[in-house]
Fold each of these.
Amino acid sequence: MHDRPNIPELLDAVQRFLDEEVVPATSGRKQFLARVAANCVRMVDRELAMERKQFEEAWHGMNRLFGSESAPSDRIERGMAVSGRLELLCERIQDGEFDEDSEHYDLILAFVRERVREKLQVSNPKLLEADAKRGIE
């Protein structure tokens, strides 16, 4: 465990440097790439901040779909376990197990919608804010 600067502080420093120093001092392609880089740093920061909560919610949802399974405690193992369970979910969707006439259709639809919402919370939270203003969930 490290003290300061911590990960969010380091990411904030890089993002501010890109936004406040590099973007105004460049133009064209370099400016565009600096904006992309700053946005990537913001996405990493949001993902790290939300990672544990989003994992727990996804794991709980998959437990409702597949039956309970203990979640790994290690961060890397958690990522691999979620990926594996999501692959299984995709296979079962492709096999028609969760088609509209299935008893779990509403459950799977809610699960997938929530995972998409979580992805947008990381990649483009402004889109979710705009949808909320328009009454879209």
Note: Residues 58 and 115 are 7 Å apart (CA to CA).
Amino acid sequence: MSYLKASLAAAAFVVAVPVAAQDVVYRPISPTFGGNPFNSNHVLGVANANNNTRDPRATSTNSQADIFARQLQSRLLSALSSQIVDAIFGDNPQESGTISFGGQTIEFFRSLDEVTLIIRNDETGEETRIVVPLFIEVD
């Protein structure tokens, strides 16, 4: 009978001890399997290195005239965007306006708390809306 009591006491002690465990999660080490999101550059680099196809419509002309034309277009668009920003937020801001160039139309409307810009592609009809909040200074 004492053997039975000793067995029951040992079983009660074993059952009363708390047990801790955690989930086992497999994470691949090789960046090819994409286990770590920081390995995406490696995977993209390997894919680009193995890619032998080229876009037949792509033009890779880098003559001096092409480079000059791209730089000139960039400067003109930058100057135009500066004029639009001055018209909206400058010393004498306008309530609304429309600017058309190169197959695109830019409209802007000013309300009490925001400025809405609508950029419309005249050829495709695509439209992009940008809403800029106005911050009112309180003295």
Note: The helical segments are 2-16, 40-50, 64-89.
Amino acid sequence: MNEKNSKEILIDNQVKDSLIYERNKLNKKENAVKVTYTYIILMYLLVFQDFLSNYIYVFRFLDEILAVIGISMGVLYLFKNNLKIKKDNFIIVMCLCIITIVGFSSIIKYRYQSFIYAMIDWILVIKFFSTYCLSKIVFKNLGRKENNRIIVHIKFMIIVLFLLTIANYVFNLYDGEVRFGIKSNRLFYSIPAILASECFILMVNIILFSKNIKKVWIYIFMLSIILVSTLRIKVIGATLVSLLIIFYLSMSNKKITISRLAIVGLICIIVGYGQISFYFLDINSGARRILLDTSIKIANDYFPIGTGFGTYGSYISGEQYSPIYAKYRINNVFGLVKGKVSFVSDTFWPMILGQFGYIGLISYIVCIIIIFKNIQRNYDSQNKKIYMAQLISLIFLLISSVSDASFVHSISIQFAIILGIHTTKNKEELL
């Protein structure tokens, strides 16, 4: 009797274990589907955010909303699950804490900006990294089996934008400025640069989720045509560099080393010297050169912490006009005049240097180096698409940051999501 009961108990346990296994398997599958559709919905919202913001006011703050959610979810997830953070990513958190302390310390000490607008600028400054962390949490279960669902939507968006581009030049559907004797293409976006950036985002996505890059070259070609039609030299240059890197990685079984990236950087400087000279080297080059020169003065005068959030070179510093511009006598420069601040946020590194001094600048550079190291660490010779997508995303942001506030722009959110996808191998780690 006892032997019979033991067998029955054993069978019952086996059945229970089997049911638990099947239930966990089903839950995992359902979760993967939810994560996939979350990504697809976010992709549509972010790619068309600029267009939607013209009709639905809340979309103007979609990237900031995601940043706040990212910060909240990251903190709650960390404490709820008692997760461990890897050393490299712990350094990122510490660097962001340093920037936060430095930025608000300056606000308290010098009072060049109100606390509420300093808070808004704080969200803008750290949203790239907070979204990067959120992506690691939300999309860690985005598996290869769901790639087909995502790739269909990416191809759909590419085809729509390509057909609209053709129709625009045939039927003149959308207006656009004339550059080099040709009308630049912007479609329904506010400026051509945003269309170009979104095309680059779609290019990164199709590389990331395609089974075979060779089978999606026609879509990459369509995106390249749209990119060229925007006539934005910086984005076209970044695209060419990215395509060269993709070609190199497709032919090679080695990842890109720092020395090879240095060569790429040198080529970019040589090719783009005319633009660099115009914006930063010529004495009469305008707002960007003046913002750069003044940021160095500010960093030295307010050594080592800068003037604080929302005080210099940022969107908030223009909207809630900072007294720093008058103090350094650049408030009469075209594009920096109160009420006409069209160029005030056309820089990134001068903003970081001016607002957070040398401490903040070093902290931000360390964060970017850590992300690069994580990308390099995740290289897989058997599946190079993830490495390609993440590497060219970071390169695009760095190239754009020379003459644009790329890491605080709404576009940066989409790159942050891509940089965080598929990088969490250990589920017990937050980052």
Note: Confidence is low (pLDDT under 50) at residues 423-431.
Amino acid sequence: MKFLHLNFLPRSVDFALLALRLWFGLSMLFLHGWGKLAGFADLAPKFANPFGLGSTFSLVLTIFAEVVCAAMIAVGAFTRFAALVLGANMFVAFWMVHGHRLTGTGNGELAFLFFGAFVTLFCTGAGKFSVDAQIGART
């Protein structure tokens, strides 16, 4: 029965935070943000505009979150700020763009999952394997 507890595996919250940051930060950057950045000209006129700020401006804000803040999450730089921005972005995507639906076609399940990861990182911070920790270590 002791084997089922998996106590032979090392426990490290900091390693888990690194894995979470890399998994969700790089996924956001390369699977979502990069395509929006590369296709900016085609997407700008028809991008979702949930706050009435203009579709181009909404796309710029989304690219900032999904490219810049996602890269910050991955390396652990200003992690809580980046997680706040990305969390807000994913909340808007889930609630307003996808109509807070978790089932059916065009649902917001992926935005909902990303939102959960970014809320977690906002609450925990980056952990010791991060730029944040290195900056904090010097002060």
Note: The CA atoms of residues 32 and 41 lie 16 Å apart.
